[in-house]
Description:
The chain is an alpha/beta fold.
Amino acid sequence: MVVSLGDSRLLSLLLEVFLEGPRGAPGVVILPTDTVYGIHGLAPETGERIRAIKGRREDRPFITLIPGAAELEAFLEQPLPEELQALWPGPLTLLAANPQGESRAFRAPADPLLQQLLLHLPRPLYSTSANRTGIPPLTRFGLILKEFGNAVDMIVDGGDLRPRPPSTLLDIRQRPYRILRQGRLEVPAELLSPQAIR
């Protein structure tokens, strides 16, 4: 199913597909974000299916989308430092460790549609760029439709996107923080070590 970004039914259609897609289980959707087109699905139910669509190795976690810093505390069991709260929502992905030592990546997107979805859904969304593993992210809607039209339950047509950087990936598992991928957001220099960018 293809739905225009401007369709008045979009939010209700997305909620329906994410919660119970045409297969009778949480569905997988491609939609534009505040960075690139992404493949999304309810966490954790859709993880295996998204990996199959991407052709992705089992050891690489997906980004978990949440509304904001308050929701991150439920995963980390401690508040997000104030200097990082000021950078969210936005194109910043945080690699963090929970009390069990497991590392996960989180982002609070600035995109209004994604924010609405995250506030209405019972759980966060997994998110990964719309491409097969090893191929650059796709920005032209026609190519996305051709590549994934039969693989996902819904595609939101936001037109062709101008090539732009993905989110910045910041490792906050220890201080000072380290940039693992420089993207759209510039992290204040005082938060980083001299060897931050690699």
